């Protein structure tokens, strides 16, 4: 006959605490002392206790699953965000359903419908657009808590993890200006999302502080993907009045821009100054020592999980701000022809 299943009663007896205390620790409840949590976790580890999530779900009327929707899981930054969030949510007994929108509004709408059918307990989402007509109604009618990643939607009952992109981009642009650059191009994604607006805000503030007139032709906003940045970078260097520096918004955009520069035989740090917004080790294959504006994807994941658990615990929606940091390297140094 097999070994009897370890129960929550066994854990309570081993830890010398009430069953309700064990339940609060296992469910990730915040109203638990550090001493109590340590005693229960030690008993759980020693006994090898595994919570019966199916029974918990039936009691709570919950599925113990969180929907996690992003534009493109192949983006390394969001892979880390998702992994970090999953780690935190798993500790509280939740699993995640990861799904892509592929940057398509119709696909995004279908994904929300899928989450609703699955009766998920919450959604963490990086929206394709903040002002698409269905967004507010779809999310408000979802019947589950929502945490947005780097998005701001008015009239929405949701929490959000926001990165202070303007801070890092302003520092990067100011450094380029200090190194003698005035024609600084900016290539990034859609205009109708917070991340692009916030990045452009930092870029334009730095130019205004230096009393440099904004040249709209140097600002290319449209899509976050590699191909858009590749095409726009090629176009920027097809005319007579070429940029002397380039800031690219996102891993896909930086990959596309660097590929275009390589084809054009324009070397970052030698022929042009270059700053990538977000970091990726594979950039070294295209160009070494790239200056960048960094945001911590693990912290984004941790904060999104924390906000989700707070909403599930029926706390009021709130916002977490993750800073960005400019990291200058050789690709943004002063050139003799800047």
Short key terms for the protein model shown above:
single chain, 338 residues, alpha/beta, 434 Repressor (Amino-terminal Domain), Rossmann fold, 6-stranded parallel beta sheet, 6-stranded mixed beta sheet, 12 helices, elongated
Describe the structure.
With 338 residues, the chain is α/β, with parallel strands linked by helices. The protein has three domains: 8-51, lambda repressor-like DNA-binding domains (434 Repressor (Amino-terminal Domain), Orthogonal Bundle); 59-163 and 297-323, Rossmann fold (3-Layer(aba) Sandwich), CATH 3.40.50.2300; 165-295 and 326-332, Rossmann fold (3-Layer(aba) Sandwich), CATH 3.40.50. It is 42% helix and 17% strand. The chain is built from twelve helices and twelve strands. The chain has helices at 8-15, 19-26, 34-47, 53-60, 76-91, 105-117, 135-140, 165-178, 194-209, 226-236, 251-263, 297-312; strands at 65-70, 95-100, 122-125, 146-149, 159-163, 184-188, 219-221, 245-249, 273-277, 291-295, 319-322, 324-327. The strands form two sheets. The protein has a six-stranded parallel beta sheet, sandwiched between helices. It has a six-stranded mixed beta sheet with strand order 7-6-8-9-10-12, with helices on both faces. Strand 3, helix 7 (135-140) and strand 4 (146-149) form a beta-alpha-beta unit. It is elongated, with a radius of gyration of 24 Å. The model has no long low-confidence stretch (mean pLDDT 88).
